[in-house]
């Protein structure tokens, strides 16, 4: 859960999010090295005596041609690796269908019979003590911990986006089209997200709450809800 003074990402709760945080730190180190080099060269130009003599500097031209290419490769290779990892869905243990509406989410557990529900934001007046305003819902999405989950995302009316930052998930919900993503929650907990596509007047009031629980607790919850 993010806080007011937080400068970085939320704590990673899935392998994909861990990779994204590592790539972010890697890209920042590359940017820091570039800025340091540029600052050093600027300082050198301002402090050293200028010379108007023409010098054949093929070595320097070779360096400033090859060095940017190396930097781009250092950024492109891990980025492409993460993109392919995010697109890969291998034998999920659970399939969840998320349908965006104005302004709430509907969920269907396709591996279970008649396990569907709507998820509305909890009004501030009905919010239990200690829960987060504008982020809590009346029905949470419960998934088993350490199990691959496939999420099929679509919309019933306008564009929406199903996003949970700590799980590294953000997928557009488009009417008439099925998009899919996947995640594996590595620890138990409650993870908050919101619709990340402007979808109308109440766009700010359709949160997403994913609760990761041990398999035994998930089975008890699913049996209770589907009965």
Automatic annotation (TrEMBL):
Database matches in InterPro entries: CcO_II (IPR045187), CcO_II-like_C (IPR002429), CcO_II_C (IPR034210), Copper_CuA (IPR001505), Cupredoxin (IPR008972), Cyt_c_oxidase_su2 (IPR014222), Cyt_c_oxidase_su2_TM_dom (IPR011759), Cyt_c_oxidase_su2_TM_sf (IPR036257)
Keywords of this entry: Copper, Electron transport, Magnesium, Membrane, Metal-binding, Mitochondrion, Mitochondrion inner membrane, Respiratory chain, Translocase, Transmembrane, Transmembrane helix, Transport
Main location: mitochondrion
Transmembrane segments: 27-46, 66-86
GO biological process, any: ATP synthesis coupled electron transport
Keyword match Cytoplasm: no
Localization in the cell: Mitochondrion inner membrane
Domain (Cytochrome oxidase subunit II copper A binding): residue spans on this chain: 91-224
Gene Ontology CC terms, in alphabetical order: mitochondrial inner membrane
UniProt KW Transport keyword: yes
Cofactor(s) the record lists: Cu cation
Domain Cytochrome oxidase subunit II transmembrane region profile residue range list: 1-90
Cofactor mode of binding and number, as noted: Binds a copper A center.
Topology with respect to the bilayer: Multi-pass membrane protein
Gene3D superfamilies per the UniProt record, alphabetical: 1.10.287.90, Cupredoxins - blue copper proteins
One GO MF term: oxidoreductase activity
Function: Component of the cytochrome c oxidase, the last enzyme in the mitochondrial electron transport chain which drives oxidative phosphorylation. The respiratory chain contains 3 multisubunit complexes succinate dehydrogenase (complex II, CII), ubiquinol-cytochrome c oxidoreductase (cytochrome b-c1 complex, complex III, CIII) and cytochrome c oxidase (complex IV, CIV), that cooperate to transfer electrons derived from NADH and succinate to molecular oxygen, creating an electrochemical gradient over the inner membrane that drives transmembrane transport and the ATP synthase.
Similarity annotation: Belongs to the cytochrome c oxidase subunit 2 family.
PANTHER family, alphabetized: CYTOCHROME C OXIDASE SUBUNIT 2, CYTOCHROME C OXIDASE, SUBUNIT II
Protein known as: Cytochrome c oxidase subunit 2
Organism: Petroica goodenovii
């Amino acid at each position: 859960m993010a806080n007011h003074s937080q400068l970085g990402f939320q704590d990673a709760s899935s392998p994909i999010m861990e990779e994204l945080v590592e790539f972010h730190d890697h890209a920042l180190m590359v940017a820091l090295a570039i800025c340091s080099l540029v600052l050093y060269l600027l300082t050198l130009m301002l402090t050293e005596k200028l010379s108007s003599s023409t010098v054949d500097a093929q070595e320097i031209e070779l360096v400033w041609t090859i060095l940017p290419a190396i930097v781009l490769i250092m950024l492109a290779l891990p980025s492409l690796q993460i993109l392919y990892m995010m697109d890969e869905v291998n034998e999920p243990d659970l399939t969840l269908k998320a349908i965006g509406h104005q302004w709430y989410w509907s969920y269907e557990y396709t591996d279970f019979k008649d396990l569907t529900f709507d998820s509305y934001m909890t009004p501030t007046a009905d919010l239990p003590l200690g829960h987060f305003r504008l982020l809590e819902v009346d029905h949470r999405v419960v998934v088993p911990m350490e199990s691959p989950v496939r999420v099929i995302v679509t919309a019933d009316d306008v564009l929406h986006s199903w996003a949970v930052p700590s799980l590294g998930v953000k997928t557009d919900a488009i009417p008439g089209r099925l998009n899919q993503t996947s995640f594996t929650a590595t620890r138990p907990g409650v993870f908050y997200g919101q619709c990340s596509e402007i979808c109308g007047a109440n766009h700010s009031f359709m949160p997403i709450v994913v609760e990761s629980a041990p398999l035994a607790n998930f089975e008890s919850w699913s049996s209770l809800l589907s009965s």
